[in-house]
Amino acid sequence: MLFSCAVERGRHGCVYRAHCARHGFGLEAAFLSETRVFVGFIGLLRAEFDAPFTPAVEIGWRLLPEFWGRGFAPEGARAALEMGFADLALEEIVSFTARVNTASIRVLEKLGMRHSAKDDFNHPALADDDRLRAYVLYRIRAEEFYRQTPITGASDEHD
Ligand SMILES: CC(C)(COP(=O)(O)OP(=O)(O)OC[C@H]1O[C@@H](n2cnc3c(N)ncnc32)[C@H](O)[C@@H]1OP(=O)(O)O)[C@@H](O)C(=O)NCCC(=O)NCCS
Questions:
Q1: Closest C-alpha residue for ligand 1 atom 45
Q2: Is 8 in a helix, a strand, or coil?
Q3: What is the mean pLDDT of residues 16-32?
Q4: Whose CB has fewer CB within 10 Å in the chain, the N or C terminal residue?
């Protein structure tokens, strides 16, 4: 990969300002380190809708299509996971996506997140006949993350 993805926190602020004001973290703008070109949003969010695994903190992403396939989502997501475990002292972070979203599921697998079929659910905000209603849930605990990712000492390295 030629460029790395910098998850900008303090300087560029959170996209979901109300969420950020309430929780101190949120979905954040991501830029290429070298050119400062904006590529999309990656970050942590509180999941508080009614589901067996909530309340929880989830990791999510949405990149501009021209930046897909370059590994930026896994790279930015790893930085966000490190921030969640190191700075926020979370014990577990989840992620969920529609079962048909194979690109995001690949990212979850690259992050070493675990899938258990018993966690899968129908999204409560979607209609019964919506093809996106069937969701898969993935989890990762702090100890699992650190088994695969050496401790660098700070998510500040990504600033
Ligand atoms: C999901 C998404 C973040 C992937 O990010 P990324 O930085 O491209 O991730 P990667 O480069 O690691 O690619 C992951 C997978 O995406 C798929 N992919 C890659 N380029 C793609 C493209 N141009 N079009 C469609 N899928 C593509 C491949 O299956 C790839 O897996 P592989 O590396 O084993 O081939 C990106 O597709 C996206 O932002 N999609 C729209 C928003 C979205 O789905 N958000 C998640 C909602 S839960």
A1: 62
A2: coil
A3: 82
A4: N
